[in-house]
Amino acid sequence: MKITAIEAIPFAIDYRKPLRFASGEVHRAEHVLVRVHTDDGVIGSAEAPPRPFTYGETQRGIVAVVEDVFAPQVVGLTLLQREVIHHRMARTVGNPTAKSAIDMAVWDALGRTLRLPVSDLLGGFTDRMRVSHMLGFDEPAAMVAEAEKVVECHGIRTFKVKVGRRPVGLDTAVVRALRERFGDTVELYVDGNRGWTASESLRAMREMADLDLLFAEELNPADDVLGRRWLVQHLDVPMIADESAPTPADVTREVLGGSASAVSIKTARTGFTDSTRVHHLAAGLGLEVVLGNQIDGQVGTACAVAFGAAYELTSRRAGELSNFLDLDDDLLTEPLRITDGELVVRQSPGIGFEIDDEKLARYRLDR
Ligand code: MUC
Ligand code: MG
């Protein structure tokens, strides 16, 4: 169970169409596949998605920090020393997706070594999650057409609508068009990625008061501290902390400070080890949880559903597990499939996927 090497492999796969939102846009999945090797010949894998507009990481930066800083700290430890791994990596600030990919690749290697699914090792609550689909910025008719396709092809009936444009009517028109098209057959919530001010956010939420929204996420910057608290006090739906709360300490600060009343757990930024901490914190504080997406590929999505299905609290709501549908191709031997609006956790050892070597060779950027 001794870790003998860690690889960081940059790869790139195009999105069929860009995803646009208030803090940025994504055209290509320029991710890093992290592979943890052990002396038993086991390889555990996970992916790190650089999101400079959220965490400041870049693809080259992730490769460098894994190779130069984290690999030397982790090689030589065993798969059972996950808390030592966490402690050593924590000496370096930031780099959340690089650290998380190592953490999850270690868990994958552990599951493969023990011949057990990681989701069962974590909590084993269920083997599937309902899926929520994220709708990026476009005209109302185009966003409704995309939602129709997603309902028809995948049976998904929960949508997170990206908002945060100006004037706010651009976005409220989309949410209204979706509610008019689907009636009460779909669940809707909105994510502003900090695009609006506190007063714009409240005006928009009041305009949408009759649209039965589940949640609002990061409508305005949490750094506008008083404005954000004021907004949360005036909303009649929970405000989800996403990018304002990337660590357990941030979750505590934002929630106890009154700037959030629910939390997004993203395995891409908190791995399995810190996602477990955020989960326990949310359970202890009585917060609602949404399993979020960092615009993950299939490797990242398999990680997210393995974690989400492990606990009752994370599997209660639909999880954001469908961004990979927009990718041209992916790295798995057996692609993930969303059927009847659900994604199932594969009951194989580890996280539940196999990397296709031929595809990795095709998309890797370092050879
Ligand atoms: C989301 O939930 O915000 C877009 C930016 C980011 O950090 O994550 C995505 C989705
Ligand atoms: Mg968000």
Radius of gyration: 20 Å
Q: What is the domain tally?
A: 2
From the helix content, strand content and strand pairing, which structural class follows?
A: alpha/beta
CATH topology of the largest domain: TIM Barrel
CATH superfamily of the largest domain: Enolase-like C-terminal domain
Helix/strand order: EEEHHHHEHEHEHEHEHEHHEHHEEEH
| Number of DSSP strand runs | 13
Mean pLDDT: 98
CATH architecture of the largest domain: Alpha-Beta Barrel
Tell me the span between the first and last alpha carbons.
29 Å
Features of the shown structure:
single chain; 367 residues; alpha/beta; Enolase-like, domain 1; TIM Barrel; 2 domains; ten-stranded mixed beta sheet; 14 helices; 40% helix; 22% strand; globular; binds [(2S)-5-oxo-2,5-dihydrofuran-2-yl]acetic acid; binds magnesium ion
Can you put this structure into words, describing what you see?
With 367 residues, the protein is an alpha/beta fold. It folds into two domains: 122 residues, Enolase-like, N-terminal domain (Enolase-like, domain 1, 2-Layer Sandwich), CATH 3.30.390.10; 225 residues, Alpha-Beta Barrel (TIM Barrel). Helices cover 40% and strands 22% of the residues. It is built from 14 helices and 13 strands. The strands form two sheets. Strands 4, 5, 6, 7, 8, 9, 10, 11, 12 and 13 form a ten-stranded mixed β-sheet that branches. It has a three-stranded antiparallel β-sheet with strand order 1-2-3. It is globular, with a radius of gyration of 20 Å. The mean pLDDT is 98. The structure holds [(2S)-5-oxo-2,5-dihydrofuran-2-yl]acetic acid and magnesium ion. [(2S)-5-oxo-2,5-dihydrofuran-2-yl]acetic acid binds next to loops. The site of magnesium ion has 5 residues, from loops.
